[in-house]
Structure formats: C-alpha cells, structure tokens
C-alpha cells in the first residue's frame, strides 16, 4: 500500500491515541492490529507511538517538520475510516514545507 511508504516522507511522527476497552476506540484498535506491523516494516526508523489510556478519546496526531502538529478525531470510526483520516494527514504533510528544503 502506497500510504504506508508515504508516512515517513510526509511527517516526523504519528501518535495513535485510544482506549483499550471502549467501543468508540474499537475501529482504531482493529486498525492498529491489522496495520502496525506493515507500517513499521515500511518505515523502520519512523516513530509510530500507540498511546493507550482508559477513557481517552480516539485520535490520530501527526507531527510535521518545524514542530507543526495536526490531530483528527477517530472516535467511533471503523478501521476504514481511520485509514481515510490517516491518508488525510499524509496529504496535509505533503503540502507542508520540509526542514531539508
């Protein structure tokens, strides 16, 4: 999948926040289980941080160059919707200035 390879090219870090037990985080948990290994395989040095905390709202946070961060809620989203939101973050990062330019 092309989006997996685009992670480290468009952002500096990805944080995934979720609750271990809530129904609203179920889609995020499924996304992590089915995609984490492949994301790390495609981006071995790219930080993908999975943050689990009871009662927290599910969200994705991307950190781009120059410390810019963008978060999107994936509360109640299914795995496909989580992927869609992640692809939005990737596209946003492709449009941002890079520190190496």
UniProtKB/TrEMBL annotation:
Described purpose of this protein according to its UniProt entry: Accessory subunit of the mitochondrial membrane respiratory chain NADH dehydrogenase (Complex I), that is believed not to be involved in catalysis. Complex I functions in the transfer of electrons from NADH to the respiratory chain. The immediate electron acceptor for the enzyme is believed to be ubiquinone.
Gene3D superfamilies registered for this protein in UniProt: Glutaredoxin
Residue span(s) of domain Ribosomal protein/NADH dehydrogenase: 20-93
Keyword Transferase attached: no
Cellular localization per UniProt: Mitochondrion inner membrane
Keyword tRNA processing: no
GO cellular component, as recorded: mitochondrial inner membrane
Cysteine disulfide partners in this protein: 19-53
Highest taxon, organism lineage: Eukaryota
Protein name: Ribosomal protein/NADH dehydrogenase domain-containing protein
SMART domains noted in UniProt: L51_S25_CI-B8
Family classification: Belongs to the complex I NDUFA2 subunit family.
Membrane topology, from the record: Peripheral membrane protein
Primary subcellular site in the record, as a coarse category: mitochondrion
Keywords: Disulfide bond, Electron transport, Membrane, Mitochondrion, Mitochondrion inner membrane, Respiratory chain, Transport
